Amino acid sequence: MRDQTYDHDLLIVQTGAVVLGAEHIISLLMDRFSLTNWFTPAPDTSFDETQCAVMTEEFFGLLIGVYLLT
């Protein structure tokens, strides 16, 4: 069931990328994962180092999943 839900989530993100544009979707995802500040030259994040690594891994995992299903 979880795999099916994840596939549906990726389909929704792909549809959003087509409708709204990839740059906008990536910006929204970075905000959703609270990583917007992490990608700036002087990162200031509310996560500790371990949490930031986990959130970054999840973010990139989602991007890779969206790319692989296209």
Describe the largest sheet: none
What separation lies between the terminal Cα atoms? 21 Å
How would you spell out the order of helices and strands? HHH
* Overall pLDDT score: 80
The number of domains: 1
- The helix count comes to 3
The strand count comes to: 0
Question: Which short descriptors sum up this protein?
Answer:
about 70 residues, mainly alpha
Protein model, in words:
The chain is mainly α. It has one domain (2-68). The protein is built from 3 helices and no strands. The chain has helices at 2-20, 22-32, 49-68. Helix 1 crosses helix 2 (22-32) and helix 1 (2-20) packs across helix 3 (49-68). The longest helix is centred in the last third of the chain and has 20 residues, at 49-68. The chain is globular. 1% of the residues are buried. The model has no long low-confidence stretch (mean pLDDT 80).
